Amino acid sequence: MKLHNNLGQKLGKVASLSAVLLAFFGNAYAEEQVLDSTAAVVNNGIILESELNAHTQKLLSQYAATGAKVDEITARRQALQSLITRELILQIAQTNGAEVTDMQLDSTLESAALRNNTSTDKILKSYGPNLTEAQAREKFKEDYLINEIRRSSVRQRIHISPVEINTLAKALKQRGSVEPMYHIAQVVIPLSSAPNEAEYNRVQSEARQALNAIKNGANVAEVAAKYATSEQSADMGYIPETAIPLPFLPAILNAKPGDVIGPFRSSIGMHIIKLYDVSHSAVTPIKTYDAAHILIKTSIIYSDEAAVAKLKDIASEINKGTITFAQAAKQYSEDPGSAIKGGDLGYAVADIYDPNFARALTQLHVGQMSQPVKSAFGWHLILLKDTRVDRDSLEVFKEKANSIIFEREFNEAVTSWERSLREMAYIHVIDPELVNSGVSLDQDNKGKNTLKPTNDDQGSQQYSENSRLLN
Hints:
- The protein has helices spanning 7-32, 49-65, 72-95, 102-115, 120-125, 133-155, 162-175, 197-215, 220-225, 249-254, 304-320, 325-332, 336-339, 355-362, 394-424, 432-436, 456-464; strands at 38-42, 45-48, 178-190, 235-240, 260-265, 269-282, 287-296, 344-348, 373-375, 378-389, 426-429, 443-444.
- The protein is of the alpha+beta class.
- The longest helix has 31 residues, at 394-424.
- The two termini are 33 Å apart.
- The protein has three domains: 7-97 and 414-464, Triger factor/SurA peptide-binding fold (Orthogonal Bundle); 178-282, Roll (Chitinase A, domain 3); 287-389, Chitinase A, domain 3 (Roll), CATH 3.10.50.40.
- The protein contains 17 helices and twelve strands.
- A four-stranded antiparallel beta sheet has the order 2-1-11-12, with helices on both faces.
- Helix 3 crosses helix 6 (133-155), helix 3 packs across helix 15 (394-424) and helix 6 packs across helix 15.
- A hairpin with a 2-residue loop joins strand 1 (38-42) and strand 2 (45-48).
């Protein structure tokens, strides 16, 4: 899927291609060619039938692999919902002027490969055997942009109070070395952001039907597919007790494996939950990292390439012993808070840092300096000075608690944010199979679309509220 500056231009190209075929090869040849057509219009962009067909087959294959029997129209509706959301997020990227240079893309690919214990080649090939390397890189770039925009946009929707952090931090410290893990699956029947009485009654009725169907042995994935607005699996796997949303927790604690509970109301809809199993696992000790860094920021006039080259020169001088890391940080780093301390960030859990920074940090050995690492703030050299497991400091447990609460609320916040994107958009479904089946996903809010560019200062603030790296 591409970012589309002008819908008419793309539709014009489809029409022009048809005219060329007719002019050069005649009607007989043109009739044999299956030209790509529009499945849906999304603001000033379109989703093609070829994209919808491919995505539908992908979902059907995934369901079949788990033994779920989902009909093609259900999978097609779910696929189109996912593609619509994807297109809307990519349109935000285009509006904001978000770009990923080849250097950034290479760095992100390498980090992803290292994190998943695979190779960059295998990651690119996972996008399908029929794509060229350039096409696969474009898909990976789109996925990266979508994830970054989604996470930075959703951060501002999550508000965590000091009371919540303190309460959970004390509980974590007192828990000991074992925590219950719950294997659950859920069905979400979505609600709009402002449901009227008729919609609420309909969703309540559908929730009761879903509850009864699952209690009577229906496959949870098959029931969930009827209402899904994304590709997220109904099976959520094993979730630690601290990560379960608080409204569901009392009922889950009282449930036995095999129980089906709900419906529960949340800001995004009605939930039905099935508990498969309960286990008790050792709690992962809280590991803290004593790190230092040197930050070089980029701008319109100072490119990624220039920043990386400067950091490589600095690293070369450090490795030769011409200058120490602390001296280089004081002289060159553009993070004033840490530069004055020789780049020192102190002991902290990795989760509080920018995701790319955190991943690079956790891959270092004590005493090792990283290659240049890209984050939301610029490019870094990172030095890992020490690590330790902290079992006593309440401040460390507060940092861990903040991370747990954020992740616990993140999925619901993402769903709410994506719903708001769709509700503000102009969406018109043209796909004949869905239209003829009575599936309606249309939205006519073109004049109400309030998506605006996010300037750098706002974007930096979104990160700084949840990060130790301050811009």
